[in-house]
Design a protein that fits this description.
The protein is α+β, with helices and mostly antiparallel strands. Helix content is 31%, strand content 26%.
Length: 90
């Protein structure tokens, strides 16, 4: 989660450290710009950016069956409604 004080570290040093450490997914969430970037390690151990599906959902490659609707990040949705929706997914 970016903040003005951490953006450079999160986009550079931390990004490279996590990549070198083999962390399978790296998310950069920028609440000021309402932008989310998702990276997944490729077979060579380098992060590749993953595009969000046209419906606005990101499907995790690490947590099986977990999807994140980007609108949940920028709005103040009803937490109970989200939990019910996640529980209803196959």
């Amino acid at each position: 989660l970016l903040s003005p004080g951490t953006a450079l570290v999160d986009r550079n040093a931390k990004f490279r450290e996590y990549e070198a450490g083999g962390v399978p997914e790296y998310w950069i969430l920028d609440p000021e710009r309402e932008v989310a970037e998702f990276y997944v390690l490729d077979q060579k151990g380098a992060y590749q950016r993953v595009e969000v599906a046209p419906d606005g959902e990101f499907d995790s490659t690490v947590v099986a069956g977990f999807s994140l609707k980007l609108q949940w990040l920028w709005e103040q949705p009803d937490a109970l409604a989200i939990l019910l929706e996640l529980d209803a997914r196959p």
